[in-house]
Automatic annotation (TrEMBL):
It comes from the Eukaryota. GO terms for cellular component: cytoplasm; nucleus. Belongs to the MYG1 family. This is UPF0160 protein MYG1, mitochondrial.
Length: 290
């Protein structure tokens, strides 16, 4: 494919959803699709002329650039492509595009050479799936957030906002194509904003927490205390993932070191006061300590 040539991205017409909107938005960040025309139809004869097809057609075939997930036999998850992941939710068209093109998409947005295997892109690839893409996958496939009855519903999610951008039932003269592209701009902006947030804010904090965990024995011989350098570093956004990957799931770490569970964190606040904080039981429970 020639960069910036007028290629065609095919997707379905009618009511649009966040998954195909996001799939199209992500593809437009690739040089080969940056100037592509988005064709919205369910006509197979027209879809067959497209260079890539998402969320329609009833076929998943990456070799032929066909990325639908609606067929009964389709049950692929992020974990199928990345076995070390915990995410086993069925992929939508957004997830399919992400697992096949995500690293290149992130590299293009951040201006990083995709062939360098930059550690920033590696870290962001998993983070963007777990914090953004998986939500789109789950909602589009009807996967609930919890098994037990929910005490309240969320109506401000990206998927909800995209749904409300469809033409209203009583506004028959509304241009569906304009609504689609308005939704694409919304989704694309949120995707880009989050990529830059994780690259500029989240990732630097991760490196600080990673070094703190690695150097914990220099703080105290027990290895149960970590010291976070700098002020205001959001350590809890990274600690549990780092502990899991660096210590608990690392075959090169002996059992004694695994049993020396980290219990306390010391850090300086922005007002120059110091805090000693007990580590919570897990990342989802900040009110109970180890």
């Amino acid at each position: 494919m020639v960069a910036n040539s007028k290629l065609r991205i095919g997707t379905h017409d009618g009511r649009f959803h966040a998954d195909e909107i996001l799939a199209c938005a992500m593809l437009k960040h690739l040089p080969e699709y940056s100037n592509a025309e988005i064709i919205r139809t369910r006509d197979s004869s027209i879809l067959s002329t497209c260079d890539i097809v998402v969320d329609v057609g009833g076929v998943f075939n990456a070799e032929n650039h066909l990325y639908d997930h609606h067929q009964r036999e389709f049950n692929l998850t992020y974990k199928d492509f990345y076995p070390n992941s915990d995410w086993d939710i069925k992929l939508s068209s957004a997830g399919l595009i992400y697992v096949h093109f995500g690293r290149k998409i992130l590299s293009c947005i951040l201006g990083i050479d995709e062939n360098t295997m930059d550690p920033l892109v590696t870290a962001l690839f998993d983070k963007m799936y777990s914090s953004f893409i998986v939500e789109i996958d789950a909602i589009d496939n009807g996967v609930p957030m919890a098994i037990t009855p929910l005490r309240y519903s969320m109506n401000t999610s990206l998927s909800s906002r995209v749904n409300r951008m469809n033409p209203a039932w009583n506004q028959l003269d509304t241009d569906e194509t304009i609504c689609f592209h308005n939704a694409l701009q919304l989704v694309d902006k949120e995707f880009i904003t989050l990529v830059h947030f994780y690259a500029d804010t989240w990732y630097p904090a991760r490196e600080i927490v990673l070094n703190a965990v690695k150097n914990r024995y220099s703080i105290d011989s027990s290895g149960t205390i970590i010291y976070i350098e700098g002020t205001g570093c959001p350590w809890n956004a990274h600690f549990f993932e780092i502990e899991k990957s660096l210590l608990l799931n690392n075959v090169n770490v002996n059992e004694i070191e695994k049993q020396n569970q980290i219990l306390f964190v010391i850090y300086q606040r922005k007002d120059n006061t110091w805090t000693i904080q007990a580590i919570p039981l897990n990342e989802h429970n900040n009110f109970s300590q180890r």
